[in-house]
Design goal:
Number of strands of chain B: 5
Largest sheet of chain B: 5 strands, parallel
Strand content of chain B: 15-25%
Shape of chain A: elongated
Distance between the termini of chain B: 22 Å
CATH architecture of chain B: 3-Layer(aba) Sandwich
Helix content of chain B: 40-55%
Structural class of chain A: alpha/beta
Structural class of chain B: alpha/beta
Order of helices and strands of chain A: HHHEHHHHHHHHHEHHHHHHEEHEHEH
Oligomer: heterodimer
Number of domains of chain A: 2
Distance between the termini of chain A: 57 Å
Number of strands of chain A: 6
Order of helices and strands of chain B: EHEHHHEHEHHE
Helix content of chain A: 55-70%
Strand order of the largest sheet of chain B: 3-2-1-4-5
Shape of chain B: globular
Chain lengths: 483, 137
């Protein structure tokens, strides 16, 4: 126990602290921009990032993964904030955390494998498109200077890392361009125009909402969506960090940690959050392997805000918009185009439908659920197709069954059997079939009964072990018919 | 005679040509280590595109199948090594680990355009590796 703690916290502390500092610097612009997407003061996102990062560093299942305020959650809560205000967001965050904690205790991590690849691709692509479209109002139709700032920001974030990687390029863009703005001035909006920055540590508060069923009715749908989206993105990120660091992590512990972290965030005036793919990759790329890196990211972030808060309000919005465009491009899975050509038609359809539903509902959770249901239907259709081949030689008929015999497939199977056969030796060959349930057994029973009624002799061949077992337990047919 | 041969391969046409070059000085006592670097951004797309039923390891091996097939056909003993990291630094690090006598790589990998503009992995390896470097055109 002590050994694991030591390993997860104290391995190579210098590299991990430096990586954490790099992440803190990269987190600040995103936390502010995500707050603005959600429609709350920058402090709500910054507090969330500080609290979630520190809390998950202790409670999470995946060392070196970064969790903070995220675009996925911010995009979900925009309507809640605009209709009911920030206090309802904090209450929804508490409930989100509670739901995640319960799901974590119920070991929901395992359920992740039921989310097909096509739905995950739809998830990240829809997230990317939504982050991008959320920035349109901050980029277009404001002023010429706005376009210039966005363009220069994009140049910096894409070109500088090719030559210089020690400091995150978004931070270079912010410092450099904000300095130019302060020196020269320009017709652009600043962070201060959209919200206030308080230079203080978060303090414990109980969200100021009426504690009634009506409130629950308002926040519950949001909390459920936030909980689902948070877990989907967190567990996906954990898998990516597992791969990038050649290690394995507990998904259930991560789910519980996400839950508790969001509960704490809600009590300290922060919006909900989850793991971040981009930031976690920055962390791992900087050499991070331990929990100390995540802890450092959170604490350095809040320290910088307390020291530099007055400057942060001066940051021109188009710089943040440019950084968000970069985040959107980085989030999008560009391999999806190739995937759409190569993958089975149904998988490509599921991906496109997932994206379309998210963009229509502005809700990633609904997209994921719809995608899972759709792919389950496609799967059921595919699997419920049992093929039956009939061959006849000199009064002996052989039926060969191919596929899965269960409640959804018995009808297609029965339709392919000629029940009008008379006085023949009929062999039912199950070499390439598997019988799964009592509906399958019933179908075979009735098939045999009907065929025997017409004077046929029926035998069953080559059942596999499981199918034979279920037939023995449930079927009424004579044992001697089983060969 | 080189005994431990390191072949940095990303599955590109150039890395296949480098693999073919190995045959010219391979002998029975030697073993070739095929080194494939998984960039940190690759982890994201590999995890997203990986299927649940097969391990990522196997899918990554498939990317190198052209090279491993070539080695199998020519009775060249090989092993594969997957390392996470930035391609340049990681190839240099493995080459300088002391376990290898020579390192081979193609002039240009999958990301051709980028390397043309900005200096390639092969350039960096040639400069920084402590063992002989063979860059195959």
């Amino acid at each position: 126990m002590i050994d694991i703690l030591k390993k997860e916290w104290l391995t190579d502390p210098k590299t991990n602290i430096l990586a954490g500092i790099v992440v803190a610097l990269a987190l600040i612009p995103e936390a502010i921009a995500f707050s603005i997407i959600a429609g709350v003061d920058p402090m709500v996102g910054l507090y969330a990032s500080f609290i979630i990062a520190v809390s998950i560093s202790i409670l999470g299942g995946r060392p070196a993964m970064i969790s903070a305020a995220t675009g996925a959650i911010a995009l979900l809560v925009t309507p809640l904030v605009s209709e009911h205000g920030v206090e309802y967001l904090l209450a929804a965050t508490l409930l989100m955390g509670l739901i995640q904690l319960v799901l974590g205790i119920l070991k929901i991590g395992k359920l992740m494998k039921f989310i097909p690849k096509s739905v995950m691709l739809g998830f990240v692509n829809a997230l990317a498109v939504m982050i991008f479209t959320s920035q349109i109002e901050h980029i277009f139709g404001i002023s010429i200077s706005t376009y210039v700032y966005v363009a220069v920001t994009l140049l910096i974030v894409y070109l500088v890392p090719r030559f210089f990687k020690a400091i995150p390029a978004p931070l270079i863009a912010i410092v450099l361009l904000t300095a130019i703005y302060l020196f020269m001035g320009a017709e652009v909006r600043t962070v201060g125009d959209l919200g206030a920055i308080e230079r203080s540590l978060p303090s414990f508060i109980i969200p100021d909402v009426p504690y009634t069923l009506e409130t629950l009715r308002i926040i519950l749908p949001f909390s459920i969506s936030m909980a689902i989206v948070g877990l989907v993105e967190s567990l996906l990120t954990a898998k990516i960090v597992d791969d990038a660091t050649d290690s394995y992590s507990s998904k259930n512990r991560e789910s519980r940690g996400q839950g508790i972290s969001n509960i704490i965030a809600g009590f300290f005036g922060g919006m909900g959050g989850c793991a971040m793919i981009g930031q976690s990759i920055i962390n791992v790329r900087s050499g991070a392997t331990t929990r100390l890196s995540t802890f450092t990211a959170g604490t350095v972030l809040i320290f910088l805000i307390i020291v530099l808060g007055d400057l942060v309000v001066q940051v021109p919005m188009p710089i943040l918009a440019g950084i968000m465009v970069m985040v959107a491009i980085g989030t999008f899975d560009w391999g999806s185009f190739k995937y759409m050509v190569r993958a089975p038609r149904t998988d490509a359809v599921v991906m496109v439908v997932t994206v379309a539903i998210v963009l229509m509902t502005h809700n990633l959770a609904i997209g994921v659920i719809a995608g899972v249901i759709l792919s389950a239907l496609f799967f059921a259709t595919k699997i419920s197709n049992v093929e039956v081949d009939r061959t006849e030689t000199e009064g002996a008929v052989s039926y060969r069954f191919n596929g899965q015999v269960f409640f959804a497939s018995v009808d297609t199977m029965m339709n392919q059997i000629d029940l009008d056969e008379e006085n023949k030796a009929i062999e039912l060959d199950f070499t390439n079939a598997h019988i799964w349930d009592d509906s399958g057994v019933d179908a075979i029973d009735s098939m045999i009964t009907k065929l025997k009624r017409k004077g046929n002799r029926v035998s069953i061949r080559n059942l596999n072990k499981d199918s034979r077992k279920i037939i023995n337990e449930l079927s009424m047919i004579n044992k001697e018919e089983l060969i | 005679m080189y005994k431990a041969i390191l072949l940095a391969a990303d599955g590109s046409e150039n890395s296949y040509r480098a693999a073919q070059e190995v045959k010219k000085f391979y002998h029975e006592d030697a073993i070739v280590t095929i080194l494939n670097i998984i960039g940190y951004a690759d982890s994201k797309s590999d995890v997203l595109h990986g299927s649940n039923s097969r391990s990522l390891e196997r899918e990554r091996l498939e990317k190198l199948s052209k090279i491993t097939d070539f080695f199998n056909d020519n009775n060249i003993r090989y092993e594969t090594l997957f390392e996470h990291g930035e391609p340049k630094e990681t190839v240099v690090k493995v080459a300088n680990s002391g376990d290898y006598d020579v390192v081979l790589l193609g002039t240009r990998g999958l990301n051709g355009l980028q390397e043309m503009v900005l200096g390639s992995v092969s350039h960096k390896v040639a400069k920084r590796a402590n063992i002989p470097v063979m860059i195959v055109k």
